[in-house]
Amino acid sequence: MAHGGTQAALAGHATHAGHHHEPQSFWRRYIFSTDHKIIAIQYLLTSLVMAAVGGFLAMLMRVQLGWPGRQWPLLEALMPNAFKGGRMDPDFYYGAVTMHGTIMVFFFLTTALSGGFANFLIPLQIGARDMAFPVLNMISYWLFPVAIVFALASFFVQGGAPGSGWTAYPPLSDREPLGQTLWLISVFILMLAFLAGGINYITTTLNLRTKGMSMSRLPLTVWTLFVTALVGLFAFPALMAAALMLIFDRVGGTHFFDPAGGGDPILWQHLFWFFGHPEVYIVILPAMGIVSEVLATHARKPVFGYRYMVGSTLAIAGLSFIVWGHHMFASGMSPTLGSMFMATTLAIAIPSAVKTFNWLATIYRSKMRFTTAALYAVGFVSLFITGGLTGIILGNPSTDLYFHDTYFVVGHFHFIMGAAALFGVFAGLYHWFPKMFGRMMNERLGKIHFWLTFLGIYGTFFPMHFLGTAGMPRRIYSWEAYQFLGDVATLNHIISISAFVLGAAQLIFAFNLFYSMFRGPKAERNPWQANTLEWWAPSPPPHGNWDEAEPVVYRWPYEYSPKYAPEGVDHIPQWLPEPAVATAGRDGAGAR
Hints:
This protein has 592 residues and is mostly helical. It contains 18 helices and 2 strands.
């Protein structure tokens, strides 16, 4: 390859024959699109809107929990159905608790990671032009807003949103108003959308990899998204079946979960948590893949222990299906069975620790570029360690019986699933924003956003462990009756103020995101000097991804700072052939 061709290849420019697509109308291109990149952006933007809704509900909850006895006449004027006599209505509060958890788990984190990033990255990183089933991909997205309509409609029907929590335990959920039925329909439709997407991701990864892209050369992002799709194929049907059974109980006269008719409410818990604990990893595994990719790219080092990272992903996926019982230690479970679930729960900490130590080894003695994306990736590791350590405590039946249904669980859950996964989303957005939109986000605003978010999360969720240790229960409308436990008031004030800081920080992100889409500096094809195939495509990639021929893969994706590279070259992209590597240093390619 000529020196000019080498420089173009390192920068991400193609050198082969073209591939063209017919022009499309606005509606066909941007609304009812079958292009995986447009569908990815639709998923991401819709999930971010839902995150704003879920976050707003959280702010209302913290208003009540921060100062439960205070009247809020301004809020009553703005939301007369939610605030009565200046104070938040208890029924609205419990509906907000339910919908906050539902929105953040299902409509934000799961859809942003397993809908948005999966759609965008899988075809690009394996060298495909689109998903295996583009029409099914479009349908899977449009089921998402249908599910949203059913979920949000529960606020506007008689009785309001259900107050049974995002876990919807019977017999309470069997007796809730109409909003509970709408919630169940919404969840069923959303699970159907996830199944359709998962089938696409698995088929695409197995069948549409470009020449040279073996499974051992897949980026860890694709590995985690692929394994997540496999987990979803087995986990989502359990919740779909449970939701359908509960709908029949509510409107069809059956008694699957109603003890008054011979049903068993514990059956719901088994079905829900057989889905629910794999769901934790359906959210966290894609975030782990994103963090692995971002850390390697910005640390300018190969991912430490690539094969062990893949193996730990597979181990986590397998073990996730045999740990669900640790959510049910307080349900009257046999001590023998509880001990077995304790063993599997502690076992799943091992592959999680493998990933953690491999991330730390990747960072160790690296030439880290502390971009906003890198800060969020490092912050993810911090949050994952904090949440993981408290998870070991809850995985032991003897300690869980005390901490169960206290604020200790709320703090743990938000660290490990909420905050850590959120940081994975932010790391991915800041990292791949140039590829998605062809423009750069503002780094200064990004770093302000990071520090306010990082400090806000620790200020919000870390004190919850102290409240839980003191014995303050979760899902309570007011803590005034629990002041004998200690200085509950001060801790709740700190938590609420920190939550407001955390919420305000997201306004900075929203401005940065939407301003940068249209006015940000134009991005190069490969602004981070990364190795994976999406950076070989134009920014943003055209319909069909590759403006010319599909790329050919010659190596694994993490050849950063290789010893054999010519002087001035700190990365060898997957698309660069061996002869080009030998001449790369002489024309200055790759030194940018």
